[in-house]
Write a structure and sequence with these properties.
The structure holds two protein chains of two kinds.
Chain A lengths: L1 E10 L2 E11 L4 E5 L6 H9 L6 E6 L2 E2 L10 E4 L11 H11 L7 H7 L15 H13 L5 E5 L7 H16 L3 E5 L3 H7 L2 E6 L2 E7 H8 L4 H11 L1
Parallel strand pairs in A: 3-8, 3-9, 6-7, 7-8
Antiparallel strand pairs in A: 1-2, 1-4, 4-5, 9-10
Helix pairs in contact in A: 7-8
Chain B lengths: L1 H17 L1 H19 L6 H27 L1 H8 L5 H30 L2 H4 L1 H28 L4 H29 L6 H9 L2 H12 L7 H11 L2 H28 L3
The chains are: A alpha/beta, B mainly alpha.
């Protein structure tokens, strides 16, 4: 469960987050959309501990964020850009991350099989295709079975088969009651994966509700149309 | 602590696999061996080694430090989202990078020194030169880290500052002191000169080497000043203390920047 109250963040002269408040209950699958520069990435980064907000309160899974890090045991994060130390092997990277976290990688083998990473395990990461590197990122995010999953543009760079497998996996996680948060520009991807949408514009939340009601309100049949409409109005 | 070691060990493995650091050690091995074979074979070779070291190590250290930050950006950000605290991550990455670099210099140099029996002839001088090279490595890798974190998005500026700082500290600094001495030669400048030396770790290292080989007398007035101050018991303690400060401050400052930074 994630709760944000009145979050402000300024970078130099630029106000990026302007008093954002929201609550994401446990087990909800939410998509975060908005134009570039709206504050999506900054919002995610404050939840992940990469960025420290200027003011406001964040609670993740009941724990108030205050420069602490233990709460991240319940988080899995798949970044948009999957760049790793070039001469590290896939298996070595997995072992390294396992050594960092005080948790069991319960789904490691399952994910390796599901994403067909078996043949890649002994290869150096620089020899992997972009898609395979993304799959490694997805494995790292999900293998510790965290309660909350953050995916940043997850299917960019995945071929249709990998994208399909990824979506299947996210479905499984949803069915297990995980809280899933996805930022994406690909509306069709969000349509398949989330049921709630947060639309961020200019550092504020302009819409937060179910996808269904968003479509109804904007009188659109597809998410892309609805979001495009909101961007025009905003 | 265990976590710090885990992070550092991962970097050591990466570096050794990259073979770059082994090449770096081999350069010093070849250099030292060549100097010993063609330079008379005595402990004076340590002086030649230190001249190369004082120029080369700060540059390599800083570039390696800043390059690491720029090259490993996404990886470090991924690690920052793991359930570990930033300070442990920082020290793990810092020791992961700097220690192999330091050891490459020391081992690369010490091997020819030992098989040419220089270590037996003058172990103190050898230990001092190698130790100073090690300390300079740590200082300048830390500076590289600080520059990389400070100029995280502007790589041109970051590299620019690296080169400028190296040029200033390794080459221009002494020239500037000399100019000041000429310009203000009528005034008592001993304290100014000593303070100026304290503010540059490369100069501190150079002075200690000069005193050890007892050639500061060749430097005239400044040599006499150094000898009088640094040659004394108090002087050596002060110089070592200042080097320790130089070691601690950039590394600690780097940790603070890393801890507070928005990534």
């Amino acid at each position: 469960m994630i709760r944000i109250e009145n979050l402000f963040k300024q970078f130099g002269d630029l106000d990026v987050l302007k008093g954002m408040s929201l609550e994401i209950p446990e087990g909800q699958a939410t998509g975060i959309v908005g134009p570039n520069g709206a504050g999506k990435t900054t919002l995610i980064k404050t939840l992940l501990g990469l960025v420290k907000a200027d003011s406001g309160i964040i609670h993740v899974d009941g724990i108030k964020l205050n420069g602490n890090w233990k709460y991240r045991e319940n988080l899995g994060y798949m970044p948009q850009v999957a760049r790793y130390p070039e001469n590290m092997k896939v298996s070595e990277l997995l072992d390294f991350i396992k050594g960092l976290r005080n948790q069991e990688a319960v789904y490691e083998n399952e994910l390796i099989e599901q994403f067909n990473l078996g043949p890649e395990l002994n290869k150096q990461l620089r020899t992997l295709s972009g898609g395979n590197r993304q799959k490694v990122g997805a494995t790292l995010a999900m293998m510790f079975d965290p309660k909350i999953l953050f995916f940043d543009e997850p299917t960019a760079g995945l071929d249709p088969q990998a994208s399909h497998k990824f979506k299947q996996r996210v479905q499984q996680e949803k069915e297990r009651g995980k809280t899933v948060i996805i930022t994406s520009h690909i509306m069709s991807e969000l349509e398949q994966l989330v049921d709630h949408v947060i639309f961020i514009l200019d550092g504020k939340i302009r819409y937060y509700g179910t996808m269904e009601s968003l479509l109804t309100e904007s009188k659109e049949t597809r998410l892309e149309g609805a979001i495009a409409k909101m961007m025009e109005v905003g | 602590m265990k976590l710090l070691l885990h992070i550092a060990q991962n970097e050591w493995k990466s570096l050794i696999r990259g073979k770059w650091v082994i090449g770096y050690g081999l350069i010093f091995l070849l250099l030292t061996d060549t100097l010993l074979r063609f330079g008379g074979g005595g402990p004076e070779v340590l002086l030649s080694i230190s001249n190369v070291m004082l120029l080369f190590i700060p540059l390599v250290g800083m570039i390696y430090g800043i390059l690491y930050i720029y090259q490993s950006r996404e990886f470090v950000e991924l690690l920052l989202t793991q359930p570990i605290d930033r300070k442990t991550l920082y020290w793990g990455l810092f020791s992961g990078i700097s220690i192999p670099l330091m050891l490459a210099f020391i081992i690369g140099s010490i091997l020819p020194l030992s098989w040419h029996a220089i270590l037996l002839q003058d172990p103190v001088a050898a230990a001092m030169v190698l130790g100073l090279g090690g300390v300079l490595t740590l200082i300048f890798v830390a500076l590289g880290f600080v520059l990389g974190l400070a100029f995280y998005d502007d790589r041109i500026k970051g590299f620019g500052f690296t080169i400028v700082i190296w040029l200033f500290m390794a080459i221009l600094y002494d020239g500037l002191i000399l100019m000041a001495l000429f310009a203000f030669g009528d005034y008592p400048l001993e304290q100014f000169v000593i303070a100026a030396v304290m503010l540059n770790p490369i100069d501190l290292a150079r002075i200690m080497v000069l005193l050890e080989f007892d050639i500061s007398a060749l430097m005239g007035y400044t040599g006499a000043v150094f000898n009088r101050f640094f040659g004394s018991h108090m002087g050596i303690i002060t110089a070592s203390g200042m080097l320790a400060v130089w070691l601690a401050v950039p590394a600690w400052f780097g940790m603070r920047v890393f801890n507070k930074k928005d990534f």
